[in-house]
Each structure stands twice: as structure tokens, then as C-alpha cells.
From TrEMBL:
InterPro entries: DNA_brk_join_enz, Integrase-like_cat_sf. GO terms for molecular function: DNA binding. GO terms for biological process: DNA integration; DNA recombination. This is Uncharacterized protein. It comes from Lithohypha guttulata. Keywords: DNA recombination. It comes from the Eukaryota.
Amino acid sequence: MAAGRALRSLDQAMEADLQGDEEALFDLVESLEADKVEAAGFRWQASSTQRRQDRKLQNYEKFCRLIGVLSRDDNVFANMSDQEKASMLFPDDLGKLYDQTSKFLIFVARRAEGRWQKRITYTTLMQYREAIMFWAFRSHDERKLPDIPTGRFWRKLTQAMRLAAKKYNLPVFGPRRATQIGLAELRQMIDADMISTPNLPFAERHHLAWCIARVTAARPGSICASQKFHAQNGMFLTWRDVTITRSKEYGKFEVTIVFRSLKTNKNDPEQNVKKGQKNMQLTCIIMPPRSPVNLIKAEHLDKPLIVKSGPRGLGITEDALLSSDLNKYLKRRAEKVGYDPAQVTTYSIRRRTANDLAQTIGVEQTRALMNHDPDTRTLERYYLDVSSTLPLSALTTDDADPAGVELEQSSLRAQSHVIAINALSNEARQRIHGPALNALVRQLIANDEDYPYGVSSQERKNYERRVRIAAVKILLSDEVQKQRQEMTQWDWEQRLDALKNSKLMDLVLEKAKQAMGADEDLDFEEVGVDVNTGEFLGESDEEAEADLEDLVETSDDTTWTISRDTDEVGDVEAVNEEDEAEVPYHVAAKNFMIALLENPMSEHEDIKNNPKHCPKCESDDTISDELKNKTYNNPSHLRDHMESYVHTPKARWVRRYEAYYANDDIVCPYCATTRSEDGEVQIYSDMKSLMRHIERSSTAKQGEEHDRLKEEDGWYNEDFGQFVTPRKKSRDMQEKRKRRSSVQLETGVQYSAIQELFAPRPHAALPGIVLGDSKQYTRHGTTTVPRSELGKPLIIPPRHESAIKKIRIEDATLPLDMFEGIIRADSSIKPVRMHLAEDDQSDVSRDSGEDY
């Protein structure tokens, strides 16, 4: 019926075109001709495949210029047309074509280097063969030449490849660096992200994508848009693809997700027809749906599920996030936790989920869920890792010892969480991003022969950023190897036990238990005890414990065994049972939502966009509500307020006094307490007079009791009324600068704001010139002394002894003008200069008289 409707609609469209005017029909024919011409050279491969083919073509062009097929002159080569280049790259003579392309593959096998090893793999060389054959067929087809024999062309290239693989010892595959991210790694990354993220709504979207990938084993291109073209055409997960319904159990929800984009980098209509319509769409039901009411509002159905962030990572937008950005975010969070970012991708989550599903539901069901063809071995070849799931030694040796099996299972568990077990500690991460990183960056720049001279400042910053990233990778690899070598068995066991820990879930569980404790209303019936007999009065299930002597079990030997009940409050088993009490699901879910909204784990403070109240004001009961409700969006203003007089103990005492004696006369509270019944208390005109009285009071004037009360309130503490005003801070800074300027004038030592360079650095515009040469200064008149002698006075040379007046020790107390003229005005003594050597920081070069 659907086919009939389609035919009728097509017939109607054709009838409408025939009945239309000639101009519209002419435009239709012209557009069809243009589409036919465009289809002649249409490249339908995936964008990643097209980019790889373009790179291989550029390499082939450079090789042809190298062997003289194309001109080596840049001007001549730039003026050549595409038709001329194609005729030389892929000549009409098939023998010449086979010869050029075979030489190119041998050259690649001989000179190209792999990413992780010295030689490229045979698999990579196969990609060169595929690209060369594609461009050769395309070139001959565009030039209307006879078709190239595919089988013969393939055999010629394969012969050259096999010779190169054997002669240059090419490996078939590279080192396997496929990693797996499971629940333990996700817990660690989510905890770290919740603590440090400046944009919680954006971070939650990424956490949602991680969880969806973990539960459904979906590809990143099925959750987010794999490229901008897919983002424009809606090929990503939207809220319309998600259905959230309530279940019969209170607090539980069921989610149904429909993935419309399954394989984004290989969309072949011919293969999709063979697979069938059923395999073109994947529906993942997290739990069986029972309620038909969808909880997602209609205005959000067409919006993307995972969105981009705003400028500078703040806020969120309504644009769909690209899968590449999802991968970058995961790498950055992995690096912050201490993982190697080079080994972590979003496919690591899919790979670990595939292993777990294969153990639970079998390989065939896992293959169907991951949208792999039934007749392929992609799952076993690229995803499954049998060695990390089977206790081989226990199975092959028929080991029936439970302890041995349990030990091997523990080792397998650690092997399945290699990333989490070997995550760098906080101390190691601090060493990476400290002075060691700066020193390595300077060393790499100094030893770089291709330093970009004469470039703009922005290009130089980009170069230094790339060098810094390379330095981080080097230090990270060194720290990982060092930590693995130094890790003890106790450290390994502690990390293994901590795999199930989650700070967020611990917080949710703690809040849930607190909520349960607050809601419980425990009523205990009071049971009386007879004083004389010690027995319970009324109905009670409790029984009195027997005497200790009655609990002794006698035996033939001298050992006595005492049996006691273990239902006391202090027993370990009872405490463990209480700790393991199950928390209702709806209570845990509610507190989980509250934790996401409030995020009490966050240590990031964005005061500018999220003003905050003064914490001291909130905890002070003497502060007015107006001051408590005041917000600050500047950290310096908040810090100045917290260090001001308002939060001194003296100001707190004044506010408490004013609140207590609001409608009374201003009197001294200590005098009022210590006065006699008929004594009078002095009344003060204002608080300043009262403060002056209390500060000047003493034991001799007002008595010991008055002084004791004053001391109890903290009047004698050093910080009772001390505070630093912003004006005083500014004044201190000005005084410090004045003293520094005076020292410069007196000593002649000029300070500089230019940072010292501890390693040579190439000049930005002058090739061959370096800045900051740190070689030791060894010219005539310079002596090297240990660092311990730096603080000792310099011995005056004998040639200057005649210029020094001899004074007596008792003259040291005379005025300073006594020492005028000790050194002659025409003396050639000059200030001491020091230079730290780079190789030995314990030695110092001291200039003994001559200037630099």
C-alpha cells in the first residue's frame, strides 16, 4: 500500500511537470544535468577516509618530485594544472604506472616511522595501497582512459609490499593500546569533575553521555554529532529519542532510548539494504516501561541531549555537541585524575561495556546490541579481551583451592582496571605541573633546531603551547613508570579496595541516612525495673544477663571458656548490620537529585558570576540580617570585609552589648556586676567613652573581679581588636617601595622586573642568538666560593688597608658621624656582584673588584 501511494504521488508529480510551462520544464532538465555532472566525481566515502586519501596523494606527489617525475622547482610545480599533474602521477602507460606506485610503497616502508615504534605496520602500508589504487582509478576515469586491470594492479603493488615487509621487518600490527573504562574509572572521573568543574550543568551533560555509553555500549557518534554535517541534519540524540516514564514502585523511572544514528562513518546504502530495516535503528530499554506518560516536556523534544558550552566553558547553549569534543572533554578529565590521556577515548567505555556484556548475555547478543554484522569478527578482534576475564591458571591446572582461585580473581579484577589502579597520585601530578615542567619546556625549546624565528607573537605562543603539551606527555610517562616501579603490595591492595569508592555516592548515602533518621519517630515503651529483685516490671522481651561466674564452661584442662551473647550495642556484628541497612530507592534518588542541584562537593568558586555571602556573617548571631544578606562578587572585597573591624572580637562584643542594653543607659557591665548593693554605676555618654574606660581599667583601679571578667571576655587577647584596613595595606605597600628605592640609591644595586632565564632560549627574530646563557662566568678577577660563605663579610684587600681608620671598641656607641671618612672618596672599591652557576648551585662567583 505504501508503494502504491509512492507511485501515485510520483505520477501526480510527473503530470504536474508535463502540464507546467516550458520555462519550469527547462529549469528541471538543467538541474538534472548539473546533478549528473556532479555525481560523476562524487566521493561518497566517509570524511575520515577522504582525508586519509588526500594525505596519501600529497605524499605521492612529493615522492614523484623527489624522483624527478614532477618538477622540483616550486614555481614550475605551482603553475602546473591538475590535468598535467594527473598525467604524470598516473601515466597512460600501465607499466610505468606499476613501476612508480611500487617504488612509492617501497619508499614508504623504508622511510616512514610509526606512531609508537620505529617502523610503520603492514596494516598502515595497506592504507597507502588502497589510496593509490583509488586515485589511479579516478584519474583514468576522469581522463576517459581504458580501465586499469584491478587484479593485476593489486598483485603488482602487493609484491612490492611483501618484499618491503620482509626486507625491512615491518610488523603486521602495532602495539595494542586499547584501554577499557569501567565503573571504577567513571566513578573517579565524575568525583573529580564534580569537585573542580566551573560549569556544573555542562559537566552533567557529559556525565550523562558517559553513563549512556556505559549502559548501552553506544558509539560516541550515536550520542553526539560526529561532524558538523550531521549536526546540521539532526543526526544526534535528541530528547524526542528518549522516553522517561514512572514505574509502579515509588521513586523509580524507566528510560527508553532510540538511537537513530548507529554507524556514522560508514553509511553505505547497499550494505544497509542487506542488513534490513530492523538493524538500522536500535532501541535500548533500560527497564520495561509500564506507564505511557512521558515526563519530558514537548518544547524540549527537538533539542539535543548533549549540548555545547558557552564562551570560556561557562553556561550551556542549545547547539549539539560534536563527538570529538566529547572525546576531548573525557581526555582532559582523565588527565586531571591521573590517567594517561593518550590511552583514553570514548571508545574505551564502549570496549569495557562490550566485555562485561559478553560475559553476561553472550557474544551473539552483544554483537547484535553493538550493531555488528552477524558474519563478522569485529567484536572478538577489536573489543573482547578474554585474558582479563578468565582465571587461566586455575582452569588449566585444575586448581580446586578456593584461596588460589580468589587470589587469581583479584588479580584479574586489577587487570581489568589497569587505568584506575595505576592512576597517578596527587603528589605525582603536582610534580608534573611544577618547576620540572617549566625546566623541561625550556630545555626542549633550547634544543629545537626548527625554532620558528621571525613569526608573530601568536604563532610563537602556539609553538610554546605545543612544546608544553609534549613536555607534559614526557613527564607523565616518566611518572607512571616510576610509580609502577615504586608501588608496594600494600599500595596495590589499597588501590584495589578503593575501586568501588565514590565520593558522590557516599555523600548521597550519608544524606539519605540523615533523612531517614529525621523522618523516623521511634517510640519506646518505658519498662521499669524492681530495685530489690533486679527484674523487669511489666511486659518485656528482654532477659537479664547471667552472672559472669555462671557463664564459665568447665573442662578437664585449665582453660575456661566464657560464652556471652553478641546482641549488645557495642558488638561489631550489630554495628555492621546497622551500617549495611538498606536505604529505600526513592530516598536515595531524591538525595541524588538534591546533590546534583546543590553540588556540595564543588571547590570551585566563581564569585563574579555567582555572588556569595560572607561566611563569617552567616555564622555570627550578632550580625544584622541586612549585612548577612549582602553578597560579594569580588574576592578582594570579600576578603577585605572578612579582615575588617566588623569581624573582630571587639566589634562582636560591642554588638552583643548594644543588643542587651538597647533601651538602658550606657554603663560598664563589669562595674555593674562587681558593685555593691548601694553603690552607683557611672553612666557614659557614648560607646567610645565606655570602650576607653574598659581599655584603661586595671586591677588597681577597679579590682580583681572587674579585671577577671574583662579577661574572660578576651580583652587581653592580642587579636581582640586588631584588624588591617585597605588604606593601611596600601600605605604599607608604599612604604615598602620607598624603602626599596632608598636601598637602591644607597647601594647602587638596581633591581629588574625581567625574569631570570635558567636555560638558553633562542631569540625570536635573530637566528643563532640565544638569550639567558647560563654558563659559569670565569673571567679574570672572579673567585668561586661556597654558598655558606655568602652571608660573611668580604675581606678588604690589603691595598685598601691604608684607607681605613682604626677605632676602639668603646667608640662604637658614638654618633654615626664618627664613622664619616672611613673609606676614601677616591677609593676604587665597587659593589659586590654575584652570579649563580647552573651546574652547581652550591657555588657562587664573586666579583672581587672589576665591573662586568
